[in-house]
Structure formats: C-alpha cells, structure tokens
C-alpha cells in the first residue's frame, strides 16, 4: 500500500479490552494486523490481568499500543477510554475472543461509514463456532448471501464499528451499566441525537465465546440493566407497561434456564437502582420510543439521507 493511500485513508482504531486471555487476544491482534486497510491503529487494554498481558503483547507486536489497568475496572470503562484515546476517525470494537475472518473487512466498513454520514454504529455479523450460532445483527440473509444494509435498534459490541465523534457527542457508554445492556442505552441516545444504527452484510467475524465467562453476573446484571434502561428512557405512556412485561418475561426466562433466583436478584436491583436514579431520568420522545421498539422487532432497509 502506498504512502499516499495511507495519508488519504481515514484512520481507523481497533480497541480490544482483555483480561486473563493471552491466547485469545493474540489471535484477535493478529487478525487486525492481517487487514489490508492502510491507516490502522490497534489499542489493547489489559484489565489488570494476573499476568502483565500489556507488556507481553508490546514485546511481541511493537506497533500495537498497549495499556494496563492497575485494578479490574471492567471492559465498559476500557471501551470508553478507547473512545477518548483512539486517534482514528472510526473505531472498531472487538472482543478479545473475536477475530476477523476476512482481511478486507475494515476496508469495507470504512467505505460504508464514508458513504453514510448519519450512521454512528455499524453492527458486524459474527459466528460462534462453539454454539454453532450465526449472529447477523438484524440481517436476514438469502441463499445467495446478499442483503441490503438494515436500520436496526441496537447492536452487540463484540463486533461493531463506530463514528468516533458521534459516540463522543453522547459521552460514550453509561458506565453504571457495567455488565450487559450498555449497547441498547448507547443506541437510543445516539438515535435521539439524529444518528442511525445499521447492520451490514460484510464477511462475518468469528467469536469463539471464551470459557472464561462469569455467567452469574450475566444472569444478574442483564435483568438489572434491562430494567434500568426502561426507567431511564421510556416515556410516561410506555413506562409502566414495559416494566411489567420485561419483569414477567425476565422471570419466566429464569425459570426456563433454571436460574430464577439470579434473575430475581437482577430484577430487584434494577427497580432499586431505577428508583434511586429517578431524578436523572432522560426519557426519549414517544415517537423515538415507538421507532426503537419497532426496529427491535422489524429492522428496515436502510436509506441514507442525501
């Protein structure tokens, strides 16, 4: 790639938080280094791993910028730090147990972000081999594997691309949503500000779903944050009905997966923290709430604003 191409291409930063996953983060970084995109910056944030992964990674991959947290702060805080410290116009969020499966993915994503100035987030499809599960993030792919970009309500941060200035305009993720649900909160705030969230049919990434996962926290904080999301953003005509439906649906899911008590703990914490933060409620307009709920159920073909 010529120096001229590098200078004219908008810089892209890949942000990878990690904790105690040396093998996985190596693979993620190597997939980034294999990309054909010329103006690429890679930032790895070590969340106080037992072993100094930042130092190890820096020694093996000198071009990668590495940072180490002295205490465990969680990947949400590190992603926000990445939004602030990355020098790219666009930012790719990549889980440490995910990696690119096509060396032209970033080039294709940048082309779409340049074409769609109102898009703040592009949700990238990914495949989970262990679960044999494909996540198209709102897309329905036909047999010939073609699909239009879709306007969607939210995304999964394991694999997503961001317009940096759009995210900074809403101050990034809400760090009180420290484990699950943060993407929906960021999405609806971006939508309220006039930005779009889309899903795009690029080559799926691979998400290996590391075995080093805290399922107890997932079962508790998922319900908590879902309840908090409603307390924070639902306008009055929809607040109480949505709280009731989410509460019942969450508890029933807990019964099905045989973890009802963990779900109840999460529900309790959601109501407790929602009431405590009542004065900080920032409900969206009824029109925006309807649009968000509609897109959750039925993503729409994306038509860029000219």
TL;DR of this structure?
Helix content is 44%, strand content 17%.
Folded structure, characterized:
It is a single chain. The chain has helices spanning 3-8, 22-33, 53-60, 75-85, 105-115, 164-169, 182-192, 215-233, 236-256, 260-276, 286-297, and strands spanning 12-18, 40-46, 65-68, 90-94, 98-99, 119-123, 126-128, 133-135, 150-151, 159-163, 196-199, 205-207, 300-301. It is an alpha/beta fold. It folds into two domains: 3-207, Alpha-Beta Complex (Spore Coat Polysaccharide Biosynthesis Protein SpsA, Chain A), CATH 3.90.550; 215-301. The strands form two sheets. A nine-stranded mixed beta sheet has the order 3-2-1-4-10-6-11-9-13, with helices on both faces. Helix 9 packs antiparallel against helix 10. The model has no long low-confidence stretch (mean pLDDT 92).
